[in-house]
């Protein structure tokens, strides 16, 4: 029987998961989704995602694909999948894949958002959806410092010690840090990210925003190429996978944030 490749968008609250990837004796997004859609397909399905998220990390839009021999309307995948999912995961759209689409390897860029609740008192409502910082952050200085990271760089100072990526080089397209009431938000996009890269950048920028380090510290860290020289890794609670960008011929809607990308942005290999 001929296989079809189905692509879907997914949002989830990561606070109740041990991350995207299957974990022994722990709840994962991948396991939850595969089990739900296997019931719709009436056969086991295996998911490939655009970017693995760690424990506690959320997704505004994760993109995944799977192959199936089942014949179902796209609406059936959406409604049937969601009816079998827990309340902290939702499929938001479904479509058939075009050509050689791959959720991970076809992507040109990923967009992450990091949310910091910046007020003297913790939140009862956002305790798992944001990172709390009681000291006043200077968002303007954080934004200024972040601009040193734009471009093609060796991000060794911002990768986890156990990162398994072959190369520490990534192309950073943009980083915007801004204040929205009692929140400080970091929007960041690159062709791909190293393990803990966004959280490590957030930790560095928070130290700069608190006045513990100078604005040029980000430039110094790039040159040092040493994780030991950088700051702490920020918590996962405030981190969201925001969107994934693919070449237009795949027919996947482009998030407006990617209008900031250069015209020569290319797929990461």
Structural topology:
Layout: E1 4-12, H1 29-41, E2 48-49, E3 58-68, H2 74-83, E4 89-96, E5 109-118, E6 131-133, H3 139-146, E7 151-154, E8 169-180, E9 183-190, H4 197-209, H5 217-224, E10 239-245
Parallel strand pairs: 3-10, 5-6
Antiparallel strand pairs: 1-3, 1-4, 2-3, 5-9, 5-10, 7-8, 8-9
Helix pairs in contact: 1-2, 3-4
What structural keywords apply?
10-stranded mixed beta sheet; 269 residues; globular; Alpha-Beta Plaits; 28% strand
CATH superfamily of the largest domain: Pseudouridine synthase I, catalytic domain, C-terminal subdomain
Number of strands: 10
CATH-defined fold name of the largest domain: Alpha-Beta Plaits
Report the major sheet: 10 strands, mixed
Radius of gyration: 19 Å
User: What is the typical, i.e. mean, pLDDT?
Assistant: 95
Indicate the low-confidence ranges by residue numbers.
none
Please count the helical segments: 5
Structure overview:
- The protein has helices spanning 29-41, 74-83, 139-146, 197-209, 217-224; strands spanning 4-12, 48-49, 58-68, 89-96, 109-118, 131-133, 151-154, 169-180, 183-190, 239-245.
- It has 269 residues and is an alpha+beta fold.
- Strands 1, 2, 3, 4, 5, 6, 7, 8, 9 and 10 form a 10-stranded mixed β-sheet that branches.
- It starts with a strand and ends in a 24-residue tail after the last strand.
- The mean pLDDT is 95.
